[in-house]
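Sequence in, structure out.
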Amino acid sequence: AYNLSFEFSEDVTGFVIDDITVGNGAASNFVAVDGNTYTADITPDGNGNITIDVAAAVAIDAANNDNIAASRALTIYDVIQPTVEITQALGQTDPTNIGMINFIATFSEEVTGFTGDDIDLSGTANPTTVDVTGSSPEFNVAVSGMANDGTVIVTIPGAVCTDIAGNVNSASTNADNEVVYDTGRPSVVISSSESGITELSNIPFTIEFSEFVQDFVQTDVTISNGDISDFTQDVQNKQWSGIINPIAPGTINIFVEANIANDFAGNGNLISNIFTVEYRQSNHAPVVNNQEFDVNETDEAGKLIGTVVASDEDNDILSFSIISGNIDDAFAINQLDGGISLVSSGILNYEKNPEYQLVVEVVDDGVEPLASQCIITINVVKSCEDFVANNIFTPNDDRNGYWIVQNVHLYKDYELVIRTGTGQVVYKVLNYENNWDGTYNNNVLPTGTYYYSLTSSLSGKTYYGFINVISN
């Protein structure tokens, strides 16, 4: 409560406490000091404006003249402490590498007595200097003198300044009163599961920064003797991985130059290590299997007997050569495609050399060539102008139990058909092997004459004849 005086221009009578109208408060302890002066205590109901009015005609002078209305008295009642909020200044980056960091201190009302000495500085950056500018109720707080990288924190304790009513401030509330001071440049490390010499044609690698960075892309990676594929961000703004695809055998270097990417404080990166690997192209030996061919002893020079079949996993160019077994130098091999041919006519003799076993070597054209070998068996077929086959045999006799065709191996790809006299087929096979025992449906055929045809599936040539079957 506070005491208020009421003074008339002359002595009056009839003025009492009820003639005092108080807005947002109440009057008490009414005292008549003399004929024209009165006092009363005013007790506010709450914070805000307090109005005191005295209406006209509430008192009279000695001549019975009514008083005129008093001018309103206005008092502002304020017992609330001013509050203050600290935030980062507009445009202040966080983190930052700039040595002046700005905050805004905003009071809830006008205050007096606020200076830079009222600021508390803390944080791991150990700031030392503060400069306060601006005017109430908003001040700019500039902090500098950081001893090292780290956090910069600004607070304002309570009771360092007052409002117009003399209320001291409460301690600051801090919506965003901390900034990271960062002048360190991010380092970069390139690593891989491969090192030294590798035969991998897809070499994995990882790029990792020591802190978060921005604006780093695949084209920021410098590479020699290779291309990069599958470039992927594994950890947001911090780690990337990819595949190195070698261009040619030899040394591959990959690195990140300095100042390619910035951390969020604007510091450019340091140059990375140079990752080096020696790419040695993988080579696999050709694959070739043993094979067998036939040649007639009367075949002409240059006759292609067969082709050595080989493959290579690396798709290398292969070369073929005969390294042993070529008696009388009877055969030649095409170095490029492996085709084996007869060197000259009349050089083969079934009685002298019925079989040749050639050792053929296949070599690839890798950086370090690899070779494989195989054995090519060449059967010399005795020349026989006429088709000769038994025309009589006895199925029940172990001594003559099969129908025999001489030089049967000459008739590969021939189809044999045996019929009765009425044309019923009792035996049919491709590539006959002298193994027909005179049976049909697992029963020995009755004694009689049967007729055969032996037809080439390639040339259409056919041999005809008959067979006398004698069943015991």
